[in-house]
Amino acid sequence: MNNSTAMDRFTCVIPAGGAGSRLWPLSRANAPKFLLDLTGSGTSLLRTTWDRLSPLVPAERMMVVTGSAHRDSVELQLPEILSENLVIETEPKDSSAAIGLAAALLELRDPDAILGSFAADHVIRGNVLFQRAVRTAVQAADQGYIATIGIHPAFPATGFGYIACGQARGDLAPFDVYDVTQFVEKPDEATATEYLKRGGYLWNAGMFIAKASVLLEQMALSEPEMVASLREIASAWGTDRAAEVRERLWPALPKVAIDYTVAEPAAEAGRMVCVTAHFEWDDVGDFASVANLLSRGRKGDLAVLGDGAQVLSDRSSGIVVSESDRLVALVGMQDIVVVDTADVLLVTSKEHAQDVKSLVERMRGRGGKHLL
Prior knowledge:
Blueprint: H1 3-8, E1 10-16, H2 45-53, E2 62-67, H3 71-77, E3 86-89, H4 94-109, E4 114-117, E5 123-125, H5 127-141, E6 146-151, E7 162-168, E8 177-184, H6 189-198, E9 201-211, H7 212-222, H8 224-236, H9 242-249, H10 258-268, E10 272-276, E11 280-282, H11 287-295, E12 302-305, E13 310-314, E14 318-322, E15 327-331, E16 336-340, E17 345-349, H12 356-364
Parallel strand pairs: 1-2, 1-4, 2-3, 6-10, 12-14, 13-15, 14-16
Antiparallel strand pairs: 4-9, 5-11, 6-9, 7-8, 7-9, 8-10, 16-17
Helix pairs in contact: 4-7, 4-8, 4-10, 7-8, 7-10, 8-9
């Protein structure tokens, strides 16, 4: 089949979940990071993701999977979304269940449907290059492969997973497509530095493009009961049995990332290919990455985020995020992180920005859930 026909069968799926606990106290359970503007653009990450995908497919082939608590916010930010394409999870079950349910619904609509999963909370610069990479991945997916999009590493990141690329696949596309030989968990700095030196390793951005049936078949090899449940839920979707079936089956689904049910085993089986990206990407996973994003990597800069934020700085760098009207004054502070909200003041450093997640876990166990 030609690529235009494949694109006609392509649906963009946006999983919009996760609390973004490394961005607490800005990101909370009732206002997760995908609903926030973390770039100063005036629009949320979710809205920006939708707009980035819109040139690829019409609104009737855009699907969002989110939690019941965020339904109203998603509908407010995405008024174009069709009701049948807003898939609500009654409780979070991680990416295998979320993307698997979307695949099961699309498979019923069209046995040859192709889906692409794109996180709601990533930042991309270079939308035309992004769209070209997606079209290339759809072309590979139409030939039965599970495709991902890998990012050329800009530095030896220890907060991202990596994709090891093998043989070029000129039979699938003229350029930029390679076999995936392995997915690597987040490495230490020495290993990440070696990856950059050696070449052939890309950041794993968590984008997956495949025929819905192929993705479910791969998932069923490791989680057959989960896939059977997802297909049963999908078959009842939109009927008077929908609530009963979902309430019976959804709570028992395992919480497991799609990396483990699809990506890693598909790579081992030789069914995974990677499209190398030529755009800038960031998952804005912590305040250090937000600071770097806003300052475009200039280390001596102080990034400021927040409408009406009042900051007075002398010889300081890092980031200040303010939701209050009080003045934040900094003198001689390097790589600092200050987040000032109505009920929480967080002070840390860019070096320890990843550790905010462990602080959140401690609060959850000590009666601080009202602040999360």
